[in-house]
Amino acid sequence: MVAIEKRSSRKSWVSVFKEQWQLHLLMLLPVIYILIFAYYPMFGLQIAFKDFKATAGIWSSKWVGFKHFSTFFHSYMFKRVIINTLRISIYSIATGFPLPIIFALILNTMRGMRIKKFVQTVTYMPHFISTVVMVGLLMQILSPVTGLYGSLYRLLTNGMYPSDIFGQPKAFIHLYVWSDIWQSLGWNSIIYLAALSGIDPQLHEAAQIDGATRFQRMIHIELPGILPTAAVLLIMRFGSVMNVGFEKVYLMQNSLNQSYSEVISTYVYKVGMQAGSNNFSYATAIGLFNSVINCILLVLVNQLSRKLSDSEASLW
Amino acid sequence: MTVTKKATKSKKRRIKDPIEDKILYAVTYTLVFLFVLIVLYPIIYVVSASFSSATAVSTGKVILWPVDPGLDGYKAVFSHKRILTSFRNTVFYTVAGTFINVVMTLIAAYPLSRPKFQGKRFYMLLFVFTMFFSGGLIPTYILMTQIKFVNTIWAMLIPGALSVYNMIVVRTFIMSNIPNELLESAKMDGCSDIRYLVSIVIQLSKAVIAVITLFYAVGHWNSYFSALIYLNNPKLYPLQLVLRDILVQNEIASNDFKSTAFMEAKQNLAALLKYSLIVVSSVPIIAVYPFAQKYFIKGVMVGSLKG
């Protein structure tokens, strides 16, 4: 009996494949793509444990074990890039996570449809400005001579010229984080607005009959209503706490603010790619260290949230 | 009787806002107004500055509206050779790249949306794993040199040809919007899988295809990272890389212009040029934005679904 079943299931495997060969054919190109451009570089990660020589190639370069990792852990840059990365990340989360929630709650109290639409259209727009333009815009506007900041400063102080904000190391993080909020606060509130529109209006009506004020309804109905969404987003955000994007930091960097602006991703780029260094193995080791930490964080944070809320706020 | 009484009562209450509510509304409307102002002011300022005269900009006379209005900035932008070349390159990268992206996304998303597709879990695992772990910058660069993509247009088109995230968005959309019965009846009529994808699935997924097309296109238009890493031939540079040179690194040479006299005549053109350049490079996206807005928002929504 069992044998017959086995045979028939086996037979059906082949016949199912015959039936579905077109689907496999469709998958062929994407699979080849992902194998070459995502998985092959993962094999390339072995150069983190080797002394990569371009002439020898990935496979025949010499193994050196954890040499590059220990060099990194002992270098003075280790502490600096880790602290800078975490500082930027945590500052971004502390401001960029609650503000869209507050903005969505506030926007939801507005009663005219037209004005709501207008506010949304305006506040989503900066999201589409490219990073390069964003940084260029910031530099132009904050320019002491030709920018808005300089003009207003002169207007208020009878023609005095301000100092250059971009030259102050400590201003870097504030510029980075707040320009990001300017750009994405509206956009990031979309998901909360959707969650808010999913709240049963009967809850509001019942609360109104019981004499709850609008503010009480906001705190006791709307806030709990968007909490699960917020939890998932917070998890994802913490999973990438060691990940500060390269593009914007690199553009905003200059020789004056480097002590505060050098993060892991920019450091990897400088070690590996910039003329003069080209230390592929060392850069790969730093990058690998970073992505392993990221993976661990993501799993940990997800585990934690699964325990805290009964699997409601888990990614998988 | 009691029901109607209650209803009128609650209605009354809603019409007559309690004083706490009035305060709340005053506060929220003020905050929203302020935020809209903060978002709009820099944008208006940049547009105004771009239409002002070079002297007005370089001496910081512009506060809100254009001062000595003129088109000098735009004339400078459109006579800057590198900007024109890179603008053309970017249009090409965006159109060709987005086309590749959309095709790749569809042919991966459709089989994975079929509930009984054999090996679905294996394929999904293969794709999803790459969202959490990657080889990183240097191994990818080595790959690109090995396959000789460095310094070719392929470096701008092929890496990133498929975003797993967008693929999952499309897959979720197909699974929840196209009933399985449709497939069964099409099969009954002798429709093959590929034919079904082309003439049914794609027709019924136009909304989500619009969403990912826009996401991919904006991504191509705005990206500078792969160009920074893989290209060193200025003839292939996309707009964003030239923008970076001009806006961020302040590299404006008078021999970039079609006629050198143009730049020399106006020494202080640099600042004005930057403002006009910001406008020119952002207009294509801002122009499609009002039409695309509802699709973008839909995209965020579909993407937020678990699955």
Assembly form of the protein = heterodimer
Q: What's the arrangement of strands in the largest beta sheet of chain A?
A: 1-2
Unreliable spans of chain A: 1-6
The total count of strands of chain A amounts to 2
Shape of chain A: globular
Biggest sheet of chain A, in brief?
2 strands, antiparallel
Secondary structure class of chain B reads: mainly alpha
Please write the string of helix (H) and strand (E) elements of chain A: HEHEHHHHHHHHHHHHHH
- What low-confidence regions of chain B span 5 or more consecutive residues with pLDDT below 50? 1-13
Task: Briefly say what this structure is.
Chain A has 16 helices and 2 strands. Chain A has 316 residues and is mostly helical.
Q: How would you portray this structure in words?
A:
The complex is a heterodimer of chains A (316) and B (307). By secondary structure, chain A is mainly alpha-helical. Chain A has a domain at 65-111 and 187-308: MetI-like (MetI-like fold, Orthogonal Bundle). Chain A has helices spanning 2-44, 57-60, 67-74, 76-96, 98-109, 113-124, 131-141, 148-157, 171-188, 190-197, 201-209, 214-239, 246-252, 258-261, 264-272, 280-308, and strands at 50-51, 62-63. Chain A has a two-stranded antiparallel sheet. In chain A, helix 4 packs parallel to helix 9 and helix 12 runs antiparallel to helix 16. The radius of gyration of chain A is 26 Å and the shape is globular. Mean pLDDT of chain A is 84; it is low at 1-6. Chain B has 2 domains: 2-70, no CATH class; 81-256, MetI-like (MetI-like fold). Chain B has helices spanning 2-15, 19-50, 54-58, 72-78, 81-113, 120-132, 137-146, 154-157, 164-177, 180-188, 193-204, 206-222, 225-230, 239-248, 260-265, 269-304. In chain B, helix 5 packs across helix 9. The model of chain B is unreliable at 1-13 (pLDDT under 50). At the A-B interface, helix 1, helix 5, helix 6, helix 7 and helix 8 of A face helix 1, helix 2, helix 5, helix 6 and helix 7 of B.
